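HOLO CASE FILE
Compound: guanosine-5'-monophosphate
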Amino acid sequence: MSLTGAYDPANIFAKILRGEIPSAKVWEDENILAFMDVFPQSEGHVLVIHKTSTAQNLLEISPEHLAQLTAAVQRTARAVTAALSPEGFSIMQFNGEAGGQTVFHLHFHVIPRWSDRALKGHGHAPMADTETLKALAGRIAAALD
Ligand code: 5GP
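Model generated. Tokens follow.
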């Protein structure tokens, strides 16, 4: 998928937002949903999405929605850091198929990092166990401001 074209309401994150498929939710409010990546690149990999924006990528989102989303990314990163005590974290965001994007509902990755643990490949990590993800989501949620 290129950077242009219409938003596909059948994308996997739209289905998660509609409750059609499950996710391990970390937190949500009226604008934002943060949930565990089911193919985590490291332990505690969280995805943050806007609930009402149908931006596919960074180019399409309104400044108002982007401000809400980036504030949510920071809130999530603070909770991930407090809960899991990583040595660092990476914020990732991919645009267009050629840019590495695989789900075309704009999202930010919050990925905790440890110097002695290799990052698993984007789009190549094994699927995580649901109960493990729920437990991590609970630990991160408990550390929210
Ligand atoms: P992108 O490649 O578009 O930047 O990121 C999409 C992310 O969604 C990937 O990291 C991938 O592991 C994750 N993902 C794909 N399908 C699902 C799913 O069904 N549930 C969850 N929670 N994450 C998914």
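CASE NOTES: Residues 12, 23, 35-39, 94, 100-103, 123 surround guanosine-5'-monophosphate (CB under 6 Å). The chain has a mean pLDDT of 97.
CLOSED: yes
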